[in-house]
Amino acid sequence: MSGATLITERSWGEGDQEFRASLGMWVFLATEILFFGGLFLAYAELRSQNVEAFDEAGKHANFFFGTLNTILLITSSFMMTIALVCSDKGDRSLLRAMLLVTLALGVGFLLCKGLEYRSDLQEHLGPGRNFPVRLPAAQAFFAMYWAMTGLHAVHLTVGLGVVGRVWLIARRPVWPENFHRTLHVSALYWHLIDVIWMMLYSIFYLVGRAT
Amino acid sequence: MTGSHPDRKWIWGAPFVIWLVLLALLGLNAGLSRLPLGDGNGILAPAIGALQAVLIAWFYMRLKWSSGTLVVAALAGAVWVFTMFLLTFGDYTTRPNWWHVAPEQPTYGTELPSFMGR
Amino acid sequence: MTDATFDAVPERSSSAPSYLEDGHTVASWLFTTDHKRIAILYAAGITFFFFIGGAAATLMRLELVTPYANFLSPDEYNRLFTLHGVIMVWFFLIPSIPAVMGNFLLPLMIGARDVAFPRLNLVSWYVYIFGGIVTLYSLVAGGVDTGWTFYTPFSTMFSNSHVLAAAAGIFIAGFSTIATGVNFITTVHTERTEGMTWFRLPLFVWAMYATSIVMVLATPVLAASLLMIVCERLFHLPIFNPDTGGDPLLFQHLFWFYSHPAVYIMILPAMGVVSEIIACFARRQIFGYRFMVYAMIAIAGIGFFVWGHHMFVAGSSNYANLVFSLLSFIVAVPSAIKVFNWTASLYRGRITFEAPMLYALGFVGLFTVGGLTGLFLAMIPIDVHVTDTYFVIAHFHYIMVGGSVSAFFGGLHYWWPKVTGRLYHEGFARFAAILMFFGFNFTFFPQFIMGYAGMPRRYEVYPPVFQIYHVMSSAGASVLAVAYLMPLFYLGWSLLHGERSPPNPWRATGLEWQTSSPPPKQNFLVPPRVAHGPYRYHAEQDPSDLAEIDSGR
Fold this sequence. Notes:
The structure holds three protein chains of three kinds.
Chain A: H1 17-49, H2 51-58, H3 63-89, H4 92-122, H5 138-170, H6 179-204
Helix pairs in contact in A: 1-5, 1-6, 2-5, 3-4, 3-6, 4-5, 5-6
Chain B: H1 8-32, H2 39-60, H3 68-93
Chain C: H1 26-30, H2 35-63, H3 74-109, H4 118-140, H5 154-158, H6 163-190, H7 203-235, H8 248-282, H9 289-302, H10 318-346, H11 355-378, H12 380-386, H13 390-420, H14 426-453, H15 467-497, H16 538-541, H17 544-552
Helix pairs in contact in C: 2-3, 2-4, 2-15, 3-4, 3-6, 3-7, 3-8, 3-13, 4-6, 6-7, 7-8, 7-9, 8-10, 8-11, 8-13, 9-10, 10-11, 11-13, 11-14, 13-14, 14-15
């Protein structure tokens, strides 16, 4: 097993802290993948049983906001990566700027999401009466839409807190010795939010566009 | 450590390329979704999304430069989701009325694989 | 340099206070990051929940003495068995061995100072307690009548009990399980001391590692399925409602993707405990150490692919049922390897029958019965016959109670001197162990018979022909209750007045015995080094065996 090098007596209990933090985060991210994986399975299964209704419902998803949000998140991941490279290089001012841009893009995502939810509700795509698609199974599409994008938004909000914390630490005149580790692990979480959104985008905003 | 950095150009380089590729894939995905490919649309879109996800994981999340243990941890999640799909759809796809096919055997529950006899 | 044999045992150094003496205030316990103290906190938590779940079972067994409704309405009975299941599964069994013994022993056994993320460890306990409180609220507020499985569409569309609060409580407790799993995996990877290679790890550590993999990969899917129930109940998002394109059966797939592996979260740690005890009290090396490791990893892996056997009568396709049936047979193979290897480890051993060994031997027998009846249930025709009968109840209680709880008590006695620094009364302990074995069999063996004869589960009123079995079962349950209560008294007495324990009262191998009892806060005064594999008990008997053992590892 690479990385799990044997520790010497002098460093007993210290270990390879960078590896430890990354491994802990990656194992946690695996749980996140399975958490969303369960919901993806539900989506896939419901879609396989209601193909026409899902195609019909997919046309009502807001393509503009969905695509805009995808661009925002991809860019935020890009900025986050630059922040990490800055940390490798010791470029502090650029690092702080990049973290701030990442945060701004994340907030922008949530704002767009809020506007999108509002327009969805105005179209009666939420639970309740006056659902605009006549096929009843289209409601299952929007059930998964609300559950999964809602859960993703919760994760993104947590991610804003995680990245915001790193930004606050980065503003200190003297960085703690574990700063790079904190940044790296936080970046992993932020990227995962992006990873999951890539899948969400392709299953909710592109369905049924061709028919 | 602030001020002009000769290697800032280097800082932007590789991640910028990945960013462009991700945006290009997004454009491709959005474009392909307009083409009437039948059931192909439902497969292509998540496939391209998954490719984008893998790119982010491999480069932005630095799996490419990480130890094998981390790659295994990351893969574990994906592989387990895959087996979950495999076995669950192993159930749904072998039911008589799966997908938009009319049920051929209305007396569900009586069929057996031919090698088992009746 | 300390050697992993039972000969080199350091005496307690007066300069290093034990973890118990390091701070006496309530805050020093509630805000500790010491894995040993967190284990004690968990022990308090699971003991509390064990008696709540036990009380529910007691009421049910009392009610079932007669075929008629005596003092419970059907609705109250539904709520009681749900309470029993929810509390016992998520708030006792799942955290029992991993969060208590795993927390205490894992760092000690690999020669580490603490787990990888000590603060996360403490947080996990608070999350567990918080989840427990939310769940208890749902039970106090009126209970849940869905059974611990929360099957849709009953739980989403029809039940008017407190499903939301119970689901939320279990959801929250899931974070605690995940935190423990992440912590243990990382600990085993990064905190092993010098010389502690993967194949020198004690089997208990391997069991914790395999369990953690299951925890990490299964628990999130439970969270997903509970989240969807909450979405449907709270926000009226029709995921499981067939009228609007939903699928009730989908829930069962997701739920059992978690809940079948959850059985392995309960039994794998028990296997680890029993491996330690049997090696020690047979004074033998574990037979086929590597195969024991591979078997545990195989159980953890294959255990994920068998969940469909819970759905043989639910309307799954017959082809899928065949596959799941086959996979369920396959998972029995590594389990059988383990039983055979434990038995082979006893061969030519110098066996002594201290209380931990009695529990461990009881485990092997009861686990074998539970496992073999599991094969019955993996066979589709028999499963169809006994689905939702007491046969199933008896089967999984043989695994969870006869297996896991026996091993828990075995481990509790085995490591009691290490945890508390006191010895317990061996006579009482042996009596309780034997009583537990017989009480358990009296309780659950009749359930096999009446289940096979057709007694359905989850009914308080039943045909009088089954009364004889129910009376036997209830009588056995009262014996079992006495056996569970006894340790409270003699272990409590030992805690206050017991004789002081030497560092290694069992003359066992393993790093946890190489430090004082109870261990100091930093676990080891000198960082331990390991030069050879575990279970070097042959050294006492035939030194020539040692070369073989060492080269084999």
